[in-house]
Amino acid sequence: MYAFDFEKPGSIADAVAALKDEDAQALGGGQTLIPTLKQRLAMPSKLVSLTGIAEMQGISKAGGEIVIGGATPHAAVADGVAGDYPALAELAAHIGDPAVRNRGTIGGSLANNDPAACYPAAALGSGATIVTDRREIVADDYFQGMFTTALDEGEIVTGVRFPVPEKASYMKFEQPASRFALVGVFVAKYADGVRVAVTGASEEGVFRWSEAEAALSSDFSPAALDGLSVPADGMISDLHGSGAYRAHLVAVMAKRAVAAAG
Amino acid sequence: MTKVTMTVNGKPASGDVEGRTLLVQFLRENLRLTGTHVGCDTSQCGACVVHVDGKAVKSCTMLAAEADGAEVTTIEGMANADGSLNTIQQAFQDHHGLQCGFCTPGMVMSASALLADNPRPTEAEVRDYLEGNICRCTGYHNIVKAIMAASGQDVGAIAAE
Ligand SMILES: Cc1cc2nc3c(=O)[nH]c(=O)nc-3n(C[C@H](O)[C@H](O)[C@H](O)COP(=O)(O)OP(=O)(O)OC[C@H]3O[C@@H](n4cnc5c(N)ncnc54)[C@H](O)[C@@H]3O)c2cc1C
Ligand code: FES
Ligand code: FES
């Protein structure tokens, strides 16, 4: 790692101020950023830890939505939403391993927008709202391709609001070495329709499979997806699986998710 | 340099660290607690697992400065007060849960975090919890067996003697 300064502010306002310095960068749980720094792929002048900010921790409910603080670790989400949003709890409970879940945060995962990460599928599949220090961004506008989001320089994800669906499920086909999703599909049924979000598959990062959404909105059953497929074009091809393989998995995992959602 | 102060294995510890100093470096190099191992340094293997405020974390993937003010427990803090092995450690010995021993500190720390949360885990729960702890020697069966035994369960039926 290159050398950097470290700061741990106690409020969002102080963190925003600290991030104004040139080349300052936010530090969530560090489960992505620290490995990145070790590889010298980033050279921040200063890391601003968000883990000491009480107003970015914890889970609450407001107006039928679950509100999760941006610095809430995956393990706390897994425990905290098990009753209200079991599919989200299950997703959080299967990110990486227990030690990763004790440090890694929802805000860090959404800011990073790894094309194989789990939370982007939940946020897009739930039509969540990403709350930052300066505005609110709906998930449909937030994710802008692999490792790219609508966040500006120094903007902090302070929280995420999830509307609670009638039924939902996340099915992850795990890449066993990294524990990320080779393909993961999040399906959520709301009163006004079904949302299907796919992670791990596309070169554009997380995306909505609108054809499946339409089919499931009129008939919420695995059979409604018979004959539907996503094109292999634009799917990630790497040593873990070809684009065609991933495209095939999308339909398989979507069906499994619908079956599990019941 | 910034000064960090934490409680390590029940005793106060402090030292000057750089922003980039990892918790594992602080433990091993400043405090000379070399029981915590670095296996991969890429957040994969779990040899470096310690407890920070009661939670298992990979000390190679946490800055020392982040642990300022925290209660840290390492493998050196696991033995009984009289120096004898604690229940989990003894079970690893009894059930041959280690060969070279490199992964063992992390395995014991993860096992102890698991049993604190879930005192009678199923075999599947133990295996699931050890997802982030890699062992190149044992093939895991005897590690799982040791943890099941440490939780007071009958381990006769678990594979591999
Ligand atoms: C072994 C291992 C297995 C993993 N498996 C999975 C998996 O199965 N699924 C999965 O989804 N992820 C997985 N991860 C990634 C993990 O979930 C990370 O915790 C997550 O991607 C990043 O969150 P973090 O809080 O650790 O962020 P950090 O690593 O601290 O930061 C990541 C990036 O986000 C920025 N950032 C952090 N917090 C904020 C914020 N609140 N607002 C704005 N920017 C912010 C940082 O500046 C940095 O650019 C795994 C990681 C490891 C090490
Ligand atoms: S040394 Fe920390 S996970 Fe391998
Ligand atoms: S005993 Fe050798 S790595 Fe586990």
Automatic annotation (TrEMBL), chain A:
Keyword Phosphoprotein annotated: no
The molecular function terms in GO held by this entry are: FAD binding; oxidoreductase activity
**UniProt domain FAD-binding PCMH-type: residue ranges:** 1-167
Q: Which UniProt keywords apply?
A: FAD, Flavoprotein, Oxidoreductase
Q: Which PANTHER family match?
A: XANTHINE DEHYDROGENASE SUBUNIT C-RELATED
* UniProt-recorded name of the protein: Carbon-monoxide dehydrogenase medium subunit
Q: Which organism is it from?
A: Lutimaribacter pacificus
Automatic annotation (TrEMBL), chain B:
One Pfam family of this protein, by short name? Fer2
One MF term in the entry's GO annotations: metal ion binding
Q: Which CDD domains did the record assign?
A: fer2
Q: Which InterPro entries match?
A: 2Fe-2S-bd, 2Fe-2S-bd_dom_sf, 2Fe-2S_ferredoxin-like_sf, 2Fe-2S_ferredoxin-type, Beta-grasp_dom_sf, Diverse_Oxidoreductases
Ranges for domain 2Fe-2S ferredoxin-type come to 2-78
Which protein, by its recorded name, is this? Answer: Carbon-monoxide dehydrogenase small subunit
Keyword line = 2Fe-2S, Iron, Iron-sulfur, Metal-binding, Oxidoreductase
SUPFAM superfamilies reported for this sequence: 2Fe-2S ferredoxin-like (SSF54292), CO dehydrogenase ISP C-domain like (SSF47741)
Record's Gene3D superfamilies? 3.10.20.30, [2Fe-2S]-binding domain (1.10.150.120)
